[in-house]
Design brief:
By secondary structure, the protein is of the alpha/beta class. The chain contains six helices and nine strands; from the N terminus they run βαβαβαβαβαββαββ. The strands form two sheets. The protein has a seven-stranded mixed beta sheet, with helices on one face. It has a two-stranded antiparallel sheet with strand order 8-9.
Length: about 210
């Protein structure tokens, strides 16, 4: 059983996709041990509680310094002892100490086809606004391992989404979530649970 902790800052639609796939049996041998948010008002915490999953808030605002928060986050994750940490819209930079403590055990979902529209400042709706400003015809989502860089870890899965004319950033955000994010994040977790994601330097391959 793959013991998973999900970190999320907002509504938790990707969390819900994971919960639903566990519920319908598509995502096997995976349990969500805890949902952790930096935002006490995150609806993701309600989603977790509705599904009977332990949920807690660990906010930087509750600590004197960011260093203290980083230390508390590391301690809590070590207490939870996950096999995998899933960043599902977690808008807090992961401290290097956490990355070192859980090497290649942290994955992130990003709403673009990395290396396009990623890195510092590219999160949430901003990603889709920039894609439309650039006039690209195809966007998508990427699941990748987290390393010390920004959106620079080995890519596990990607899925492309076509951009129709006249779409708004908000509509594109919904389209990418429905057609890509909610599909490939549970799929990536499933592949990891099956031991089929094989790392080779900065790249991965999916074993049969």
């Amino acid at each position: 059983m793959l013991r998973t902790v999900v970190l999320v800052s907002g509504g938790g639609t990707n969390l819900q996709a994971i919960i639903d796939r566990i519920g319908d049996g598509t995502l096997k041998d995976v349990e969500i041990a805890c949902v952790l948010s930096n935002n006490p008002g995150a609806y993701a915490l309600t989603r977790a509680k509705n599904a009977g999953i332990p949920a807690l808030c660990l906010s930087p605002k509750d600590y004197e310094t960011r260093e203290r928060f980083n230390e508390a986050l590391l301690r809590k994750l070590q207490e939870l002892s996950p096999d995998l940490i899933v960043l599902a819209g977690f808008l807090v930079a992961i401290p290097e100490a956490v990355i070192r403590a859980f090497p290649m055990k942290i994955i992130n979902i990003h709403p673009s086809l990395i290396p396009s529209f990623c890195g510092k400042g590219y999160y949430g709706l901003k990603v889709h606004e920039k894609a439309l400003e650039r006039g690209v015809k195809v966007t998508g989502a990427t699941v990748h391992f987290v390393d010390e860089g920004m959106d620079s870890g080995p890519i596990i899965l990607q899925k492309a989404v076509e951009i129709p004319d006249g779409i708004t950033p908000q509509e594109l955000q919904q389209k990418v979530m429905k057609e890509a994010e909610w599909l490939i994040l549970p799929r990536a977790i499933s592949l990891i649970a099956q031991g089929r994601v094989v790392l080779s330097g900065k790249t991965t391959r999916i074993a049969p």
